[in-house]
Write a structure and sequence with these properties.
The protein is an alpha/beta fold. It is built from 6 helices and 4 strands, in the order E-E-E-H-E-H-H-H-H-H. It has a 4-stranded parallel sheet, with helices on one face. Helix 1 crosses helix 4. It starts with a strand and ends in an 11-residue tail after the last helix.
């Protein structure tokens, strides 16, 4: 779906990519988390760092993703083909929620109308995934998907919850039970 290779990982996997052909990186970190030292491997112009918590609704004690974050991601992502990207690495803390949402957003931004296919592609790249619904909802509005991206995510979450009930339970324990379809 993208004209370059895409990988998704968590912080504990970053070192595995430092001696690969990764040329560009997107890091999504908690607001007060220090930049991982592995990022110094990439020139500043080859990396995008976004900082917000892995939350799916506004909470007073957390920094949530905003429309400006999603707009910045989309603009940077659309320009990647001009940057000579060979291999893009997208990471967050666990490589499950924010990074998988960002990867799906990049795919839909570059392939309008392919929301389901983008989430299927994320699933094939990173089988343990649960894209952040707030990020997807914001991208749905920013990209003019008219609910198609949000709806595709609901179906995706249901499939992942059925396939990996332990992950669904973990998502519930982290205050995101609203993302679990009823009956699962």
């Amino acid at each position: 779906m993208l004209p370059f290779q895409l990988s998704i990982c968590g912080l504990n996997e970053l070192a595995e990519f430092m001696h690969s052909d990764v040329s560009h990186a997107i890091s999504i970190l908690d607001p007060d988390w220090p930049d991982p030292h592995e990022l110094a491997h990439f020139p500043a112009q080859n990396r995008l760092i976004l900082r917000f918590d892995d939350v799916t609704f506004a909470q007073p004690s957390h920094s949530h993703p905003g429309s400006k974050d999603i707009e910045k991601l989309i603009i940077w992502g659309r320009g990647l083909t001009e940057f000579g990207v060979r291999h893009l690495l997208v990471h967050c803390h666990a490589g499950v929620s924010r990074s998988t949402a960002a990867a799906a957003i990049l795919m839909v931004a570059n392939n309008p109308g392919q929301e389901v296919r983008a989430l299927d592609e994320v699933n094939s790249i990173r089988p343990r995934n649960w894209p952040n619904s707030m990020m997807i909802n914001l991208a749905d509005a920013e990209l003019g998907c008219e609910g198609a991206f949000t709806n595709a995510l609901r179906v995706h979450h249901a499939r992942v919850a059925e396939r990996d009930p332990n992950l669904a339970q973990l998502i519930k324990l982290h205050g995101r039970a609203h993302e679990i379809p009823e009956g699962i």
